[in-house]
């Protein structure tokens, strides 16, 4: 039986310990909170202070930065990047290689398409087709 954690050194020379999530084997940093029913696929990283709610699906290779909040039943596609302090509302879908900037807000039920970028601090709401709604 192998160990259930991995130690990784960050850019500042600090060693962070990540445990493998029981549902998907993605790497969860100490200090992150991930609901047991969330699926975090192998190759995904959830950084310290991040929160992942029930039923969320974090795709392979996705990166959830510190203090990001992922709501219930959110789908984050492979290789998406959620910036520090960003918040993703319930049932939102984030596309493949999409980028959500630091402290950005994505409204519940929104669709952020593949390769789209949301700027730091931006608040976005879309309909189910991904068309942006007026603020």
TrEMBL record:
GO-annotated molecular function: transferase activity
This protein is called Transferase
Q: Which PROSITE patterns match?
A: HEXAPEP_TRANSFERASES (PS00101)
Q: What's a Pfam family this protein contains?
A: Hexapep
Q: From which lineage does this chain's organism come?
A: Bacteria, Bacillati, Actinomycetota, Actinomycetes, Micrococcales
The alphabetized UniProt keywords are: Amino-acid biosynthesis, Diaminopimelate biosynthesis, Lysine biosynthesis, Repeat, Transferase
One Gene Ontology BP term is: lysine biosynthetic process
Q: Which InterPro entries match?
A: Hexapep (IPR001451), Hexapep_transf_CS (IPR018357), Trans_hexapeptide_repeat (IPR050179), Trimer_LpxA-like_sf (IPR011004)
**SUPFAM superfamilies, alphabetized:** Trimeric LpxA-like enzymes (SSF51161)
Keyword hit for Cell cycle: no
Give a yes or no for keyword Thylakoid in this entry.
no
């Amino acid at each position: 039986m192998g160990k259930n954690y991995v130690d990784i050194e960050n850019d500042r020379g600090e060693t962070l310990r990540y445990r493998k999530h029981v549902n998907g084997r993605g790497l969860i940093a100490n200090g992150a909170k991930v609901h047991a029913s969330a699926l975090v696929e192998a190759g995904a990283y959830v950084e310290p202070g991040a929160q992942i709610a029930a039923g969320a699906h974090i795709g392979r290779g996705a990166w959830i930065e510190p203090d990001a909040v992922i709501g219930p039943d959110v789908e984050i596609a492979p290789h998406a990047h959620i910036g520090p302090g960003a918040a993703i509302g319930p049932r939102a879908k984030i596309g493949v290689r999409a980028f959500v900037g630091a402290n950005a807000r994505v409204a519940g039920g929104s669709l952020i398409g593949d390769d789209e970028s949301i700027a730091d601090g931006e608040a976005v709401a879309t309909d189910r087709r991904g068309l942006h709604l007026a603020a």
